[in-house]
């Protein structure tokens, strides 16, 4: 999770530096870093969430995680649309800068929180399992 959050933050940070005259090819780096970071973070988050609950609650935990991810994505798109919509290129860039600054702050916060996840923190859920033999 830590590596994913930092790689995505680097992508959003580099996207923060663009302006209305930035060549399209320059967007390749941030648009590769952001999904790469998410590709590292999401499986790690899923593993951490599923390992922290009892097996019979894995479906609920997975559903809550995916619902939160989808809702966060929808809110992010709506917020960017509200910040950048209705204006010219300068307003789009201004909205993008606000959005990328918020994204970097949230991802750095996520990275800091990821350092607090202990590998042994998830043993409690698995150690309470009962073996049922038929």
From TrEMBL:
Keywords: Membrane, Transmembrane, Transmembrane helix, Transport
Location(s), subcellular: Membrane
Its membrane topology: Multi-pass membrane protein
Protein name per its UniProtKB record: Major facilitator transporter
Domain of life of the source: Bacteria
Transmembrane segments: 27-50, 71-90, 96-114
Record GO cellular component, one term: membrane
